[in-house]
Every structure is written in C-alpha cells, then in structure tokens.
Amino acid sequence: MYPSSIDLSSRTLRYLAGHLTSRRQETGTRWRRLTPGRQALLALAHLRCGDTYAQLAAGFGIKIATAFRYIREAVDVLAALAPSLAEAMKTIQMKAFVILDGTLLPIDRIAADTPYHSGKHKRQGMNVQVLTDPFGRLLWASPALPGSTHDLTAARHHGITEALAEADLKCWADKAYQGAGGPVRVPFRGRRLKRWKRRHNTTHAKIRCLGERTMATLKGWRLLRKLHCSTNRITDVVKAVVVLHHAST
After folding, report:
1. How do residues 112-158 score in pLDDT, each as one tens digit?
2. Which of 26, 132, 151, 225 could be cross-linked to 99 through a Cys-Cys bond (beta carbons 3.0 to 4.6 Å apart)?
3. What single string gives the DSSP state of each residue in 92-117?
4. Residue 183 DSSP one-character state
C-alpha cells in the first residue's frame, strides 16, 4: 500500500479508475504494471498531495519514467472531460449571479522569465480565471496564461466578459476588473468616498469573499501550490483538478 494519506472519497478514486479502464479498452492495452485502480491512486497522490515522481515510483514499485507516463495519461484523460466555457455557461446561466476572480499558480521559474512574473504577487506563476457560484462553489476555471497577464486582460482573452454579457448574468469581481463593463460589478475606487459608496463596497466585499472559498479549494490540491511541470502542461493539470473536484462533490 502506498504510504500517503489522500483526503478524497473512494468515489473520486472509482471515478478516475473507471475512465482509465475505458481508456485502456479504447487503446487495446492488455497489461500494465499497475491496475486502473492503482494508476488512479498514483495520479491522485500526485495531484492532491503533490508527491514527486521519485516518491511515487518508490512507493508503487515502478520506474520514475513509468510513474511520469501513468500520471500524464491520467491528467490527459481528465482534461478531456473538462467543460469549455460555452458548456459551463449552460450551468452558470441557472445561477442568480457568479463571482469572477483570478489567481496566480506559483511555478519554479527564474526571475528572468519576464512573461511569467506577476508584478502584483511579486513571483513567477500562471494566471487562472475562476467562476464561482453564490455559495462559493467552483463552476469553471480557465486555461492558464503567463503570470504577467492582467486579470481583466485574461478575462477578455478567454471570452468570459462577453459570455456573461450575452447571458445577461450579474457578476461580482474585484478592482482588477475595473472597466470590464456589461454585467461585471466592481467596487468603487478612491479614498474619500461618499457614505453610500462605502456601504456598496462593504456589501460587495461580503459577496465577493465567497469566491475565496474556491481559491482555497484549488489550493487544497497541493500540486497547485508550486508547479514544477512545463508551463504547457499547467492548463491540463488545472482542468484535471476541476473535473476531479466536481466528481468528488
């Protein structure tokens, strides 16, 4: 048994194992060092606990290259199941409103990698936009962009503001989305605000803070706290986490 405590339900493990079984049937795989269930456990230990390939290889009695290949396959299978923004909007349109926020996923890049350096967070990372429902539950996460990308620029790049406007759905966001227009509501800026504007900002903050639960949910997947993989793979990792999160709730 792999010596790792994974705080996920057995339903999540069965969900991933089922899709891995289907993948093997599609590709005609006859034999593997690990069963679909063990491969699923391997992938979950990596994504949820952030265990390294070396740790996983030793724990599962396989080579490091094999652990890497098995995890990559699991991530690809999950990423293919992630909804696009258009697909997610079918669910989002049923909500009273949504909360839009951006987060920076830290990466191990040197300071010279300017596109990935976030001036706001003072570190290297990837920008991911997140949509949350009124109860702070994760609805959708965007593909990852270099950390230097401004949140409003990212939202427009992914077509989020346009999709929300077409759906005529109210959206609450922070000051970073000032100028988004349409249904995106942001707090008033400035120090000397009128009393009604200060009240508005207080109410706005209480609503928007629910989105912080989603960020905590994402960071609950320890791999996302410091990513060591290629930046080209981060979008698929985020998609995989979103799918597993929905499968476990």
Report:
1. 566 887 777 778 899 999 999 988 889 999 999 999 999 999 999 99
2. 132
3. HTTSSEEEEEEEEEEB---TT-GGGE
4. T
Phi, psi for residue 170 in degrees, rounded to 5? -65, 140
As given in the structure block, the two tokens for residue 132 are 């949350």
Bridge partners, residue 146, by sequence: 126
Residue with tokens 């290259």: 65
- The stretches in the chain having pLDDT less than 70 are 1-4, 109-114
Taking the C-alpha atoms of residue 233 and residue 235, their distance in angstroms, rounded to an integer, is 6
Pairing of strands 97-106, 170-172: parallel
Could you identify the residue written with the tokens 């791999």?
A: 223
Which residue's structure tokens are 């590709």? Answer: 27
Question: Is this structure's pTM higher than 0.85?
Answer: yes
